[in-house]
Amino acid sequence: MEYFNTHYYYRKRWFETAAREGSSNISDPGVAMIRAFSLVFLDRVSESLETLKPFLSQQKCAVAAIRTSIYAHNHCHVVDREAISRLEALLIEESRHSNGDPFYEALYHYLANNYTMSLSILDEIKSEQSLVRVQCLLGWIHLSLEKNKIANRHFLTALQQNKNNAEALLGEVLSLSPTDGLNKVNSFVVKYPKGVIPLMEKMKLQLANRQWDHAVDTSLRALGIQADNIVALQLRALKMVIDGKYEESLPVLKKLHSELERQEPKAWWLFLKVVSVFSRCCGKNLLVLLELDRFAKSAMRTGSHVLHVLIEVGHLHFLAGRLGEAETIFKEASKDDSASASLTHLSIVHLALYGVTAEVREQVELLTELDEKKENSEVLLLRAKLSLGNTVELLDKAVSTQQSKASKHRFGTEYLIDLDPELLMRISQMYPNTTFGDKRRIRVLNLVVETCPGLIDASLDLAKAQIEIGDYSDATNTLSNVIENVDPTNPHAYLLSATLHLQQGDFELASMKLEHGLSNNLKIREYPQYHLLNGLVHKHKGNDILCINNIKQAIAHGPGGLKLTQKELGTAFAELSGAHMRLNELKLAAQDLKEANDLLKGTEHESTVVIAKAQLCALEGDVRRALALLSEIPKENPNYIKAQMQKADVYLNNLKDGHGYANCYRKLVENDPNPDNLVLLGDAYMLIQEPELAVQTYEKAMLNSAGKTNLSCKFARILVRCHLYQKAIKYYKSSGDDGCLELAELQLKLNQPDKAEQALADVPLSKKAFILAKVYEKVGDLNKALNTLKDAQEESGRTDLAMSTKLCQQMAVYANLLKDHNAAIDYYKRALHYSPGDSSIQIALAKLYMEVNDWNSCESLCKSLLAKDSTNEPALLMVADLALRRVDFATAMAHFSSLLARRPDYWVALARLIEVARRAAKLELALPYLTMAKSIDQNHPGLHYCTGLYNWYKGNFQLAVNCFSGARGDPEWGSQAVHNMIEICIDQTTAQKLLAELKPKNQDEENGILLLTSFVRLATKDRSEIEKAIIDFTTLTNNETHRVGATLGLGMGYIDQGQSARAKAVLKRLAKYPWTLEEADYLERCWLILAELYIQAGSQQQASDILQRVITHNLSSARAYELLGVIAEKEQNYLKAGQHFLQSWNLCREKNPSLGYKLGYNQLKSKRYADAIATCQRVLALHPDYPKIKKDIFDKAMPRLRS
Description:
The protein has 1203 residues and is an all-alpha fold. Helix content is 75%, strand content 0%. Among the domains are: 266-430, Serine Threonine Protein Phosphatase 5, Tetratricopeptide repeat, CATH 1.25.40; 986-1102, Serine Threonine Protein Phosphatase 5, Tetratricopeptide repeat, CATH 1.25.40; 1121-1203, Serine Threonine Protein Phosphatase 5, Tetratricopeptide repeat, CATH 1.25.40. The protein has 70 helices and no strands. One of its GO terms (biological process) is intraciliary retrograde transport.
């Protein structure tokens, strides 16, 4: 186990531990090499060289030992050149011998991070590929290169040789997903019950699966084996901090620090990781931050030269409120910081110290310029704080950036560091205090609380936002988690819980929450909100005296600066006056309102008391008084709209007066006919079912929204939904460029391309390029569509990468439709230049390569995609398609089977698998996949199509038609399903009905329908219909897409007319035509007819060559084998003819008696009498109305068999 342990700790960069583990078995060259490398990284080079010295003379590992010694010398502070020269000379001498073990040289390159060289050496050990150590090393290299699937294969191969090998067991676990790895790691733990490493990895996997409790249990097991285990200590401390148990975590953190100092004193990165993760998850708890100072000092002791260390330590000072120290360290770091990270943190500190100054603004503007990708969350937050852009957009981008960074890791320390809950909290606080802002805030805080449920401030802010938007259920859960699991003494949680229940009208629960809060923390009485809420509870209990007493106490309360906010003060006086009114103490009520007006005079909450008084009047039944009070609020007041809306509700709900309801909104419009108020009025009309008045109001809103083109577009969209297209067009025209673009799209939908082009006349090309191109595409002018996009790209100057990418993609589509494949390929490559690594573009390019038969380029691109994402389904599908096009049926079947094993309802892959199975003459292999797909979705059009395809190839034509019919209406499968139905039942009446269902979208599809129509005409055998079909076929032979099908039809037409020579001349054009999957069926039929014509002309060899081409691409072609039998029979090679006829007879599933006759005849002629008799019996059993075979073959074969 020495090699396993040493290697494990070396990989973790625990070099002290690795060196200690390696000292126990210094005779193993592998252990010695790992120990030597570890010592080098600990600056103990002389020890490293001493470790290697015994192996310099051992032939099997001398080369590796010498290389490692040179590596060690090169890492000395003062390099001994003479020693290196001697070692290099010795290396040359040793390299001449071939008796060394290449494994150790490969191990050296692996340890030196030279993976390519290590792999090349291991590849040469052909005879030893089965060795466990070789397979394991291959696995670790591929795991280091993040090629987990390849690594897993190597580890599994090693386990086949030695199922208990620790290296292979661990490698297998680490190469799997967290879920699969967790399932496997248990067997590893069982096999090594006294080992701590399996438990360490199990902890990490449990954490990756967010199984915190299980991970803690495992950490306790690990500590039972090794009391100073660093991983277990860190996990326990992290769990405590995550849960908000900060004081409990302190002794564990102390222990962790002392163990790190004892076991890995020089590993500054281990100390720093503790600082990074705990500082971001502890909610700025000063006790935890103070403990982290120890780790920061340890990291600085050996890593002060590292920029990242300085930044993290400065960040720790900032979180602890030591802004001066943070400023000093960030200034020092910014001297060498090319990435500007320290300058970003310095700007944050300056903003906290000095507020918004010119210097801070300049720093942030500089950082904005340097942050080209706009992916620095701290910079985005600074810009939002300084209002340098759309605040919400900047904050949203900052959040998505953090999530994106974190998603690159499994859940664990790296995930938490990159997610940075502390930063997310700061971001959430910047969202505006509006419903929209609260929803954004909730999204961010949910992420924080899910990750760190112990962050009380995050939970409280989340609950406040949830209450603000009326999401009471989630707010209840949030607050319950705080009280039950985090801090049962937190007063704010109880106050918010009481507020929530009051808003829900659950006064008993509100009262209970306040009582629980008091019993858990007596200091809650110091908060004025406690008394206000108590007063509201008493009010609803009917005890107005206690209500008054509590509210008065809340208004007068304020020790230590704890006072009601202006908003709460307005509510308090409104409730106080309401209580007096309920006690009929009108003078006192008036006094309350007067005092409230005095305190809130000039503030935005002055009208709150008036509105509250009106509400109380309404509750007491004094609706008119309530309306009068609300009417007193002037239109200039910020609460005016709220007052009018409340009046409207009184009219509608209390007085059931729809006219009065709408009149309140009309007053809003009369006082301020702005678009927003008009929209409110329009909505009101819609509510009381007055659509005509609503539309008129929306029209006025648009007329009054000069310059607000977004409103014009909004109203136009409403009218489009009402099918009032002409009015919608009018509004679109007055809404600027955006409206013109939407208008053009509408007119395209209405099939008015000319008007769409007119609508776009004054819109800049950069905005209208795509829609204008669609207009030209609609009228069939693809060249003009392509040129429009070219002009747009030239105009944009390629500065907008996203726009340039999109333009190139669409230009590629148009170029491909124009059959200019080279140009299309070039456009896709240019798109990839603007957006490197965009998989959607790579997929499109790969499809184009396949279309133009550039299979090598297609395969190379697919392999590149799969190297990044081994589950990329389009790439996997194309790799399988390539195998099919290369007529490698076995490989194609394997690829399609693999795709369907992962996703049985991948209909495209299923259809392809059926095609492969048919061409490989193994159609029965497709049945299990159909059954599996059917168990998932029995009614999917894709399943109907695939089932139809299977039955068509099986010869069950009626069943196939029924299945295809089930897919007819589907946008994806319908067109091809109808096409196949026409091919099967090609009588004119049925076919004409089916043809009418096909709705061509472009000229190419129209030509496809014309081709099908012409085949239907041929099937009638009517001379005039055949002549019409020949005319259409002749026209279509000039069309590249339909050339093969048209040539087939032309040949068939000439044969029907008795012009075999002309048919042969036409079909000979395709004798050497390249086979493609898209035209395979038509091409194979051409070849079969041509072969038959060659046979008739006595050109047996030419016919045979063509038939072999058919069989190469389609092993299930019964007709091809039949014609080969005819050729053999003409050559009097009856044995060979019988073999071909037997193959054909089996492929057509014994349904053709004449083919059975030919088979029996050739068996008779080749003196295989028993086979001939058996064939006759089979034919007569299946086709009793075919007696000819008995007389000609059976009766002749029987006596010869007896003789």
